[in-house]
Amino acid sequence: MVGMALTATLATAVTPGFGSIGGNQEKAYAATVTYKVTASKLNVRSGAGTNYGIIGSVVKDQTLSVVSKSGSWYKINYNGRTGYVSSDYVQSSGTTAPPAESTTYTVTASTLNVRSGAGTNYASIGSVTKGQKLSVMSKSGSWYKINYNGRTGYVSSDYVQASATASPKLVVDSFKTLGNAQQVILVTADNYDTKSAKIQTFEKVDGKWKQVLTANGVLGQKGFALAKKEGDMESPTGKYTIGTAFGRYANPGTKLPYRKITSNDVWVDDSKSSLYNTWQQKPANGRWTSAENMDIPAYDYGFVINYNESRTPGKGSAIFFHVGTNYTAGCTATSKEQVVSILKWLNPEKNPVIIQSPVSELDKY
Question: N or C: less crowded end of the chain, CB within 10 Å?
Answer without folding.
Answer: N
